[in-house]
């Protein structure tokens, strides 16, 4: 009880100190309090209506799990109302961390498994879901699991791919083929530029976008030449700057910019401009995830985009991002049973089929069939997934917050650091973050 | 207020009447501040259950970490630049708009209006204008001043000054309003007397206007200084601390530390900011008070 009070007070401290999160925490907390006070305890059995809280980032509002018709159906069936707590995108992590720390936990959280491991302390805060009724029907348990246990739920196993998103039509019109090494890539850029189109769009005001190239290139190199590197890295036996090729990959990305193959103002342009740039046919390529293709298709289904691997090495593999958008149940959820019931509902054959169909997912439940995939996704399956030419990006191996790496990558484009200094600086920060986290060896 | 008055007040109203205010102030300010002070000496982190006392470790880290010391430097640059800019522009606007101009009221409204807008909105508006091929550079190019055309938000050595400039643009009108109120409380007789004695208008500005304006200058210096040291929104919206870490300030560093889960460190940076603000503000306040002249 005393520790609970201390934590409550520390919440106040944080709120008053961190002026930004004041509004977010305040409104979030009052929302959950209202729900808890208004609807009373978690006695679903008594037949009284129970309200459960589902916290989700505002940027994930198109999530299949919070479509209103599904929530209505769930409520009609179980008499459990789902109240959504929409958290501003850039504060999602902070708000969730705070909520978990002060035990004002939502009943369900939608988040990314990989980030939950680094940001939200998965093992301490979340329920293990190994014994849920749906667990035995899961096809690919890896995309839901960490340290050998299922911690999350999703109906999809489609991890999403990262590489060079490109306009197929333009490539056909200009008679270009997919480059399989860096020289070929530069030649492709030259031809596109000669046709009066910006070859590559770099929106590096959003610094994370500068990480797509190195994240795939580093991982591809390590997988092919040095498979123990990430284990050594995470036990402090080796450093990022130990691999000279990493420097080369960073230089390559910068070269694309220096040679004039990109938008002029890479540090002022932001990711949200990307869809428009592709729709207006101003640009031909971008280092990005295949989620961008979906975004463009929503605006104009006639646009034919595809994705090919980052051409940093010869015959590169396509980068695969860890699956995102899973549902988690916190250990301290006030309505644990009802939250699990929500997952059961989403996992039921009919509901899961409906979601998989409407979203074009690759199904992760044995009795739910994968619908016909959009062209670009079918291409990915045929050209990369089936011949096993994919590789998990570095994101899958990094246990710490990567914001500082993104900043350094951005700084390279501002002329602040050389690739060598960048890797050195990230080594330092990485070691500090790992030490703070209490990882052995640091 | 004389001593006798105080006594009657004391008899009429008990000191207990201040309790509610003191209570609220303590709960929402004093207690969190003291607890925050404690946490800044701990390794309080997102992924640890126990909190350990670590002495000065967080603070030595602040001063040895390049980014953190850069943020301190940027915060000071921003604070000094905005204090000077906002007050200089504010006082000039106030003096100008205190003259007998026909459009006086209209102009006052126009100059004041940016300070009604949220700094977030203003930052969002300025961001595209300050792009390399944005409105501001286009304007310079159009009138032939190519050398003034800059990478305002992406040049690491310029960016903090640009943000300070936007902040001055926004807030100078508010400072102007306070100075105007101060100017209008100065009795015109002083100026008449000075005129009769043959004082130039410069002389009457420095010998009459400025001294009698000191209370307004005081309040404005305090407001702009504390506001400058606590800067966050402008930087967060316009650059997010970038490019790289070039425009990080204490406010965005605190945000970053909390984002990384280093709550102890984040609290320590905040405690440091609190101490710096106090060390600068309180002596300044006392000094300025002494300088004030009673009319």
From TrEMBL, chain A:
Recorded superkingdom: Bacteria
Residues annotated as signal peptide: 1-23
SUPFAM superfamilies in UniProt: Periplasmic binding protein-like II (SSF53850)
Keywords: Signal, Transport
Membership in a protein family: Belongs to the bacterial solute-binding protein 1 family.
Name of this protein: ABC transporter substrate-binding protein
Organism annotation: Paenibacillus haidiansis
């Amino acid at each position: 009880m005393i520790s609970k009070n201390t934590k409550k007070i520390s919440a106040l401290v944080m709120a008053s100190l961190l002026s930004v999160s004041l509004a977010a925490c305040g409104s979030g907390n009052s929302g959950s309090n209202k729900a808890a006070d208004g609807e009373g305890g978690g006695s679903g059995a008594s037949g009284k209506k129970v309200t459960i809280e589902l916290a989700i980032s505002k940027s994930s509002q198109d999530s299949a799990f919070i479509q209103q018709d599904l929530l209505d159906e769930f409520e009609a069936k179980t008499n459990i109302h789902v109240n959504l707590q929409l958290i501003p995108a850039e504060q999602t992590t902070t708000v969730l961390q705070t909520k978990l720390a002060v035990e004002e936990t939502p009943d369900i959280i939608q988040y990314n498994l990989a980030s939950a491991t680094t940001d939200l302390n998965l093992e301490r805060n979340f329920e293990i879901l190994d014994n849920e009724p749906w667990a035995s029907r899961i096809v690919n348990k890896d995309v839901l699991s960490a340290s050998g246990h299922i911690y999350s739920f999703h109906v999809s196993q489609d991890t999403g791919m990262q590489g060079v998103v490109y306009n197929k039509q333009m490539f056909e019109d200009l008679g270009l083929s997919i480059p399989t090494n860096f020289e070929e890539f530069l030649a492709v850029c030259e031809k596109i530029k000669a046709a009066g189109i910006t070859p590559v769009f770099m929106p590096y005001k959003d610094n994370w976008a500068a990480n797509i190239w190195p994240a795939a290139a580093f991982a591809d190199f390590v997988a092919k030449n040095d498979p123990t590197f990430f284990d050594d890295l995470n036990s402090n036996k080796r450093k990022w700057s130990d691999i000279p090729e990493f420097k080369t990959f960073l230089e390559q990305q910068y070269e694309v910019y220096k040679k004039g193959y990109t938008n002029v103002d890479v540090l002022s342009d932001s990711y949200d401009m990307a869809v428009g740039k592709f729709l207006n046919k101003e640009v031909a390529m971008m280092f990005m995830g295949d989620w961008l293709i979906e975004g463009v298709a929503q605006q104009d289904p006639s646009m034919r985009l595809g994705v090919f691997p980052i051409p940093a090495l010869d015959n590169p593999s396509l980068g695969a991002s860890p699956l995102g958008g899973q549902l988690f149940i916190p250990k301290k959820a006030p309505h644990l049973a009802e939250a699990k019931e929500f997952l059961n509902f989403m996992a039921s054959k009919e509901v899961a089929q409906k979601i998989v169909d409407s979203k074009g997912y690759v199904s992760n439940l044995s009795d739910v069939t994968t619908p016909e995939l959009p062209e670009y996704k079918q291409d990915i399956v045929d050209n990369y997934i089936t011949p096993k030419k994919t590789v998990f990006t570095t994101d899958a191996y990094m246990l710490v917050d990567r914001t500082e790496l993104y900043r350094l990558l951005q700084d390279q484009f501002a002329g602040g650091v050389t690739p060598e200094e960048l890797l050195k600086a990230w080594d330092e920060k990485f070691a500090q973050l790992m030490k703070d986290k209490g990882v052995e060896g640091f | 207020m004389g001593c006798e008055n105080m006594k009657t007040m004391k008899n009429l109203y008990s000191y207990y009447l201040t309790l509610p205010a003191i209570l609220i102030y303590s709960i929402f300010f004093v207690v969190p501040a003291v607890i925050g002070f404690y946490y800044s000496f701990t390794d309080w982190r997102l992924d640890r259950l126990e909190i350990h006392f670590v002495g000065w470790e967080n603070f030595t880290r602040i001063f040895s970490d390049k980014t953190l010391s850069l943020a301190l430097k940027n915060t000071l640059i921003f604070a000094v630049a905005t204090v000077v800019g906002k007050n200089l522009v504010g006082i000039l606007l106030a003096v100008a708009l205190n003259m007998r101009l026909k459009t006086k009221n209209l102009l006052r409204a126009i100059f004041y209006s940016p300070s009604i807008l949220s700094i977030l909105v203003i930052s969002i508006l300025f961001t595209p204008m300050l792009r390399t091929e944005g409105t501001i550079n286009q304007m310079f190019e159009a009138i032939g001043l190519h050398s003034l055309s800059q990478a305002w938000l992406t040049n690491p050595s310029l960016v903090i000054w640009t943000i300070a400039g936007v902040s001055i643009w926004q807030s100078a009108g508010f400072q102007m309003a306070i100075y105007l109120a101060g100017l209008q409380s100065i009795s015109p007789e002083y100026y008449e007397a000075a005129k009769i004695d043959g004082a130039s208008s410069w002389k009457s500005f420095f010998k009459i206007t400025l001294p009698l304006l000191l209370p307004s200058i005081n309040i404005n210096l305090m407001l702009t200084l504390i506001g400058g040291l606590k800067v966050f929104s402008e930087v967060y919206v316009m650059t997010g601390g970038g490019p790289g870490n070039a425009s990080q300030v204490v406010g965005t560093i605190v945000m970053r530390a909390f984002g990384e889960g280093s709550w102890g460190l984040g609290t320590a940076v905040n405690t440091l900011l609190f101490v710096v603000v106090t060390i600068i503000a309180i002596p300044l306040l006392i000094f300025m008070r002494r300088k004030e002249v009673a009319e």
